[in-house]
Amino acid sequence: MKTIFKTTALAVALGLGSAAAHAEGSLSIYHWFEYIPQDLLDKFAKEHDVEVTMDTYDSNESLLASLKAGKMGSYDVAVPSDYMVEILSNDGMLDTIADGELANIGNIEDKWMDVAFDAGRKHSIPYQWGSTSFSVNRDVYKGDIGSLAMMFDPPADLSGKINVLDSSGEVLGLASIYLGIPQCTTDRDQLKALNKLVLEAKPHWASFNSDGAKDVLVSGDAAAGMIWNGFGAKARGELASLEYSYPKEGYIVWMDNVVLLKDAPNRANALKFMDFLLEPENIAAVTNFAQYTAGVKGVNALLDESLKTSPENNPPADAPAGTFVQVCDEPTQKLYEQIWTNVKK
Amino acid sequence: MSGLVEKSSFGGLRKPLLMPAWVMIGFFLIIPVLTMLVYSFLTKEFRGGVIWEFSLAAYDQFFFDRGLFGDEPPKIEWTYINIFWRSIVQAFVATIICLVIGFPTAYFIATRSANTRNIWLFLITVPYWVNLLIRTVSMKFLIRDSGPLNHWLMQAGFIDSPIHLINTNFAVQLGLFYSYLPFMVLPIYASVERYNFSLSEASADLYAGRWTTLRRIVLPAVKPGIIAGCILVFVPSLGAFLAPDLLGGAKNFMIGTLIEEQFKGASGNWPFGAAASMLLLSLVLVVLLFYARSQSKQALHH
Fold first, then answer.
1. pLDDT in tens, A78-125
2. Domain spans of chain A?
3. Which of A183, A208, A333 to probe by mutation at the B interface, max B CB count within 10 Å?
4. Is residue B1 pLDDT above 60, yes or no?
5. In terms of DSSP H, where are the helices of B144-197?
6. ipTM of the complex
7. Which partner from A85, A90, B118, B223 sits 20 to 30 angstroms from B96, CA to CA?
8. What burial letters (b/e) apply to B55-84, b meaning 16+ CB within 10 Å?
């Protein structure tokens, strides 16, 4: 899958390159797959006479790995999630946005301005935010789906038909929420309980797939699966019997952010691009495409009608608040890695 | 005699003319392997990267189990050995399937008339002009529960409910078989084509049955092609990660996915990934050495 997206990204980049062969400057974006409409990139390229190229990645960890493996200095902006902004920033891989460099910084919604992972928005601007939970095919299972037990202790109808995301952070994060234990615990009994839970849940799982999380649900390979809310909305668009759940134990909430990378070859264009994405009209186009939620004021009026009322973007009134993924220190992270290896060995 | 002539005719140009070969071996073989070897003995940096300090931690992690919290007395760690063993079994089964299907195919092609052979060979290679990933994804579409294969079998009345193939070990073996079949067919074809069929006739004249002729005359003659084909299928199957990921549901690590996880996953343990790669490389080298030794022994006998 990964390679498909890379190939399309390359094709897109080549296509753009030829269209804007005589552009003044360039902008190099490192982005998630399927996360920005091509029209919007074309619009930016045209407005600022900039040649835009984009490569894609499929997880925060692979973004970090390729930046560490020598890609620093070849991209201007990337779009890491909350906890990865913190990691990149701690590792000194982000450039600082000085006061006044972004004309539209005031457009950021107040609650997303002073966030824990980037206090005062020194390195990043909001892109989209949403939740990670799961969807269930209601033709297969008709009972109550308001609990993470659907993933970790599923009813017989769903056993063996569950897809989980192929990422330790999200799977172990949701498992911790289900058990009601902290995310970076060092308590041995809690860790043993977590290890036991996922090992006992594994026989119920059919596959581990992140970029195909929608496809496996729509095709019927899986009857339930962990998924991000916007991806879940898209899946429901293709198969109406899918329902996204806001489980009673809680769920993961995340925010993807556009960051200014250190040693950006086209820093000025990167800032232009960030300003561009803070315009309600432009970021609304992303939201309408990706079906998550923007963190910019004045977007709501510009959204598609179906999105304003979609069950994926409007948690029921009694849903608990979501939890951000936490960054564990090294000795603790090692324990979680060990548990993940136990799951997949 | 001819060797001497060549030597003198290129004279002093010998070294410069060999340069491309040396550059090639150096850049694409020796330097990458040495880099991996060095990395496998370095200290891991948290979340990817290495610290330039000597450490045996990667190999220690591979072979010794100190419990979830790392404070129990060391036991032998079976986790990674089992992952290697699983990959070996998968690759072995895929090789056997390739051989069972590939040998008759190659024999069939080699026994056609000279001008139709090329058409058959062409047909064998056509699917391989398409990217491996696309072929693996197509295979997934084909064999899934609601896919055309099950649909057709149910329509034809062979089965009542879909055969569950996707996300099973068999699907992985099928995927590996499909990925590497030409690597088996082509070397065997080359051997069978060179085989002198009058030997089969002679064997028949001496009252050998078809089975005996195959076993005692044909197979020994085309054995080098079969061995080459088996190695060409087995070795890439060992490190494959597309088929296990897409067709096997990524439920269990294989050697390839284990190594990928060390570089691209949350763990970011580069020295361990490098160590696992070096151990895989050693394993493959051992297989190849056995092959080379058996070949040279054979050469001595002749």
1. 999 999 999 999 999 999 999 999 999 999 999 999 899 999 899 999
2. 2-128+256-308, 130-252+313-344
3. A208
4. no
5. 148-155, 169-194
6. 0.80
7. B118
8. eebbbebbeebeebeeeeeeeeeebbeebb
Please state which CATH number belongs to domain A2-128+256-308: 3.40.190.10
pLDDT value at B130 more than 60: yes
Q: Are A65 and B253 an interchain contact pair (Cβ–Cβ within 8 Å)?
A: no
Pick among B78, B165, B264 to test the A interface (most A CBs inside 10 A):
B264
| Token pair recorded at residue B187 | 């070397």
CB contact under 8 A, A208 and B246: no
The answer to whether the A2-128+256-308 and A130-252+313-344 domains have the same CATH topology is yes
Residues 6+ apart with CB under 8 A from B11: none
Does A1 sit within 8 Å of B246, measured CB to CB?
yes
Tokens found for residue A168: 């330790």
Q: Report angle CA A232, A236, A239 to the nearest 5 degrees.
A: 135
> Is residue A11 very low, low, confident or very high in pLDDT (cuts 50, 70, 90)?
very low
In whole angstroms, how far apart are CA B143 and each of A38, B24, B250?
A: 33, 41, 17
Q: Which domains does chain B have, with CATH numbers?
A: 82-268 (1.10.3720.10)
